Amino acid sequence: MSVVVIGGGQAGGRAIEALRGNGYAAPITLIGAERHLPYERPPLSKEMLLDPSSTKIDWVRPDEWYAANSVDCRLGVSASRIDRAGKRVVLSDGGTLGYDDLILATGAAPRTLAIPGGDHPACLAIRTLEDAERLRPFLAPGRKIAVVGAGFIGLECAAAARSHGAEVVVLERAPRVLARGVTPRISSLYADLHRAKGVDLRVGVELVRIDGPANAPVLHLADGSTVAADVVVVGIGVIPQDGLARDAGLAVEGGIVVDAYGRSSDPSIWAAGDVTRHFNPLLGQHIRLESWQNAQNQAIAVAKNIAGLETVYAEVPWFWSDQYGINMQITGLTQDGAEDVVRGDLDGFSGLLFQMAGGRLIAAVGLNAVRDLRVAKQIIQLGGAVRAEELADPAVKLADVAKRLKG
Questions:
Q1: Are residues 51 and 104 in the same domain?
Q2: CA distance readout (Å), 301 to 92, 99, 181, 242, 275
Q3: Whose CB has fewer CB within 10 Å in the chain, the N or C terminal residue?
Q4: Averaged confidence pLDDT in the chain
Q5: Which of 252, 275, 306 is the endpoint of a domain?
Q6: Looking at residue 131, which CATH number applies to its domain?
Q7: Whether residue 331 sits in one domain with residue 293
Q8: How many CB atoms are located within 10 Å of the residue 214 CB?
Q9: How far apart are CA 108 and CA 102, in angstroms?
Q10: Contact 197, 165 (CB under 8 A)
């Protein structure tokens, strides 16, 4: 028996850790395109940018753990093909590896700008340690940073840059910020927050080309205006790295399709993390998530299943973002047209916005409300059958609501 893990990010690392932690004693090989052992990515746009002198990395496990646990780490090499019939992986260096079970944890790659000059040398994404390290020298007074995309990565980078005194322009094609992840009310709060902090935030704008010298890019907008910068941070989303699976004939629909156990259309091939479109029994549908929670916990579930411990991966989605010292947490999946219910002082960034649909709580956004958000996640997991009046009333303890649902 043997397991090959393709992908050296958080999902790949947690899968290996969980395999060994659950008694799997057969050979394990990690194939990682980066030259680093597995690490967690959230700090790249948070702690590492807020403290440019920080060298702290959230490694999944220290270097010596892999050797102590007999994990063969092939770093700086990628998988080029899966031979399903022969149950072998062909590597970019020409080697091959046999497997009994294969875990695809290939993650997602940043979208690139499909415009003239989209490959300008001053453009960078924030996906690897090297990306964050390249950006850090620009986080200083007098430097000009252009951010393309007002999603979580873009706004976290903007907040970090402003905290260090850099000039920041954020360009967003959509009519509001954070459009994929939060409600219009929360979008408005964060747009006002960034502008109050000195960010030149522009929504509903179209970037048409980038030119200029390598160290002085010029961004041209459809309205004829230009933005001069020292560096351009591109945060326009990611694309699941599912090409390997597609070429191997696995079911792929905007991500590798897996069941609630993490198994693909080939019973010997599993997948975990950002690359998957997994079936969530709580939601009754296939979803693709880009989150720390999903990368970790889905990988753990896959490892347990390979180790013979039948485990369904069924969790309420959860995300978080830190900007200007404000902690935002989101649980569930927000929906257009759902009923908004407010608890606390959203304008003061201390409260929650709940979303109700069909008499059930389906999502919650918490601003500096960690404890209540955690309970809201429980309520959703328990079916979410609550009244809007209960959620809105601070005198009603959410813990009591959860306790009633458990009963």
A1: yes
A2: 29, 19, 25, 20, 15
A3: C
A4: 96
A5: 306
A6: 3.50.50.60
A7: no
A8: 8
A9: 18
A10: no
Residue 116, domain member (yes or no): no
Domain residues for the domain of 31 are: 3-109+238-306
Mean pLDDT of 33-58: 89
Q: Among 355, 357, 356, 375, which Cα is nearest to 365's?
A: 355
Residue 318 placed within a domain? no
More confident residue, 335 or 147: 147
CA distances from 215 to 122, 136, 144, 232, 236 (A): 6, 15, 11, 10, 22
Specify the pLDDT at position 401.
Answer: 96
Question: For residues 37 and 60, is the Cβ–Cβ distance under 8 A?
Answer: yes
Pairing relationship of beta strands 318-323 and 285-287 according to DSSP bridges: unpaired
Read off the tokens for 277: 């479109």
How many structural domains are present in the chain? Answer: 3
For the segment 343-383, what is each residue's pLDDT rounded down to a tens digit? 999 999 999 999 999 999 999 999 999 999 999 999 999 99
Q: Is 258 helix (H, G, I), strand (E, B) or coil?
A: strand
Instruction: Check pLDDT > 90 for residue 200.
Output: yes
Asked if residue 315 is part of any domain, the answer here is no
Q: Are residues 345 and 384 in the same domain?
A: yes
In a domain, 350, yes or no: yes
The pair of three-digit structure tokens given for residue 145, joined into one six-digit string: 């940073």
Residues 230 and 243 reside in one and the same domain: no
Tokens 């080029």 identify what position?
80
Residue among 375, 351, 378, 379 at smallest CA distance from 365: 351
Contacts 24+ apart (CB under 8 A), 375-378: 375/399, 375/401, 375/402, 376/331, 376/332, 376/352, 377/316, 377/318, 377/331, 377/332, 378/402
Q: pTM for the whole thing?
A: 0.95
Q: Do 229 and 294 belong to one domain?
A: no
Interval 161-193: pLDDT, tens: 999 999 999 999 999 999 999 999 999 999 999
